[in-house]
Amino acid sequence: MKLGLLRDKCRKKPMEGVKVNLARTTRRFSAHTIDEYEYIELPRSFEMNAGCARVSAQHTKFPEGFIFGVATAAHQIEGAWNVSGKGENVWDRFTHTQPEMVADLTNGDVAVDSYNRYLEDVEALEYLGVDFYRLSLSWARILPNGRIDEINPDGLRYYHALLDALAEKNIKPLVTLFHWDLPQKLQDLGGWANPELVDYFYDYSDLCFREFGDKIKSWITFNEPYEICEDAYGDILKAPGLNSHGVGNYLCSNTLLKAHAEAYHLYDQIYRPKQGGNIMISINSIWYEPSDPNNEEQVTLAETANQFKFGWFAHPIFTEEGGYPAQMVENVARQSEMEGLARSRLQQFNDYWIQRIKGTSDYLGINHYTTFLVTGPGVDPTAKSPSWLKDIGAVTTMEVGGDSASTWLRVYPSGFANLLRWCKRNYNDPIIFITENGFSDRGTLEDYGRISYYNDYLSEILNVIYNDDVNVIGYTAWTLMDNFEWRAGFSERFGFYYVNITDPNLPRTPKLSVEYFKQLIANRELPQDDRFKEPSLKAREDLHVDFDRVLNELSKPNARELARLGNHACPLRTLKFRSVNFGPFSLPLPQDASIRFNLGPGSQLQILSVTFERLRGAIFRSAATYLPLFKHIRQ
Ligand code: PNW
């Protein structure tokens, strides 16, 4: 039985006798057609629910006017932490007083020394051919103690020099005012938990708009408010690591959203009329999906999780209604009551602030990397009490998609498309600007994993632009060069350029992805050249899987047993085979490969990923990438 599963014409009309769960299949596959692999043979009554394949994208060409850039952040690249008048910031304090908090004991003292090597970095940007460069200003470099009463002229000089160098190459700056490096003096006053910070941020923004506004036409107020409030105030994952879970995080969001709104209005009323630029906020998303899309409870909980994560900051700014999402307000109030508190730990804004915050972003800036799955109701085993995570009331898992070097980053491109469609629906079809997206490995020049990630995620952007009319106008890759990846130090590398940090000259060496991204920008089209494909993959295209046999085996007791064990280890009912043979499956895969299946209800089978042990540590691939291996699927 043959089924042209991924052909448009067949997608809507499966061949008779073959039961395909189209809702699920098209959801997963919507991004791609498999032109080269026309037919996938499936046994009768087999429901397939696999990852999507990187073969040939459905769309490859970006629309007219779509722009590309790369991003960095001051503290991650500049170094020069205490020279030329820069004040101490929270990351300086955090890494100096608790060096063990960083995986490889590195810090931002020198980082990749971009303070001194910025001209070299501008050349790298020029080589890539980017339309714009997203950078952030170091508040403490400009205002050493955070306050406007002491301005550091050298700080202003540095940013002017950088902006001039960019202008000379015709690279437009997209500038973030706050990318996590709060002046320590302001942290001493309570940081974002202190409502007075609204005024300090106003003064700082005012100075930046006035000083740099002729050179900067695109601004971002805050980078990733969730990470600021939850990771740094609610947890210990980012500096200052207050670990005030369920309390400090919500105090932070109140201040931060007001500070954002005030900076927006200032720009809008005073500076925009003369300078004519735009201003937005960049919100990070972990996109939550139900582990089983047919499970109503999981679907509802995933929606709640998305409101808690993305909606926490997007709802007050981008909806008609304004304020925090109703579900969030309700959940935290209920939990607070159960904790015996007189008021909710999350205070809803009053009418004045609801109105003041609404509509304060020209574009919806999205940072996106990954997707998690929701498996059911309850308290996540990792949740503290009280906490944001406990307030959600859902159990989640990262057992989805392919690996990266970061535990939190799973490669799952279709989640990106779902997030973008969700944003279109929830926020009244906003203009969307992707302000970050990227992939980590341990540092390799032949970074096929990164190329594959960009290819697959960008392909999803094209799909939602053309198929769903989602208004995405720009894309920013994270990041120009390997840099100080916060608590991961240099152990996780996101850069296009490799930086050897053991060499005092900190040389930047282009990885293969530089050529990929350069070609993409030059042609405004996803490169499909062979040279960007992992060589060992090309050689293995004759692999096949005996699905019939797999299904057969699945019904046998030992397979059930294995599934149960898999269940125990990972709630997704994922079977992990990392050994030489594949248990009852006897798959003719090479000996160094492992394959992960998701056994859904009714024997639905999802190929999550195939991993080659030999490549682990260097290259990580998603299911998406490996599906072409199953070219000749036999009955
Ligand atoms: C972003 N998540 O952080 C930051 O803006 C960058 O400074 C950072 O280097 C980059 O992404 C890579 O980590 C994130 O859990 C932190 O989804 C966490 C998540 C996403 C982005």
Automatic annotation (TrEMBL):
Protein's recorded name: beta-glucosidase
Annotated keywords: Glycoprotein, Glycosidase, Hydrolase
EC number assigned by the record: 3.2.1.21
GO BP terms in the entry: carbohydrate metabolic process
InterPro entries in UniProt: GH (IPR017853), GH_1_N_CS (IPR033132), Glyco_hydro_1 (IPR001360), Glyco_hydro_1_AS (IPR018120)
SUPFAM superfamilies per record: (Trans)glycosidases (SSF51445)
Domain of life: Eukaryota
Transcription recorded as keyword: no
Protein's organism: Eumeta variegata (Bagworm moth)
PROSITE patterns: GLYCOSYL_HYDROL_F1_1, GLYCOSYL_HYDROL_F1_2
Self-association state and partner proteins as the record states: Homodimer.
Membership in a protein family: Belongs to the glycosyl hydrolase 1 family.
Keyword Hydrolase: yes
Active site per database record: 436 (nucleophile)
GO molecular function, a single term: beta-glucosidase activity
Pfam families: Glyco_hydro_1
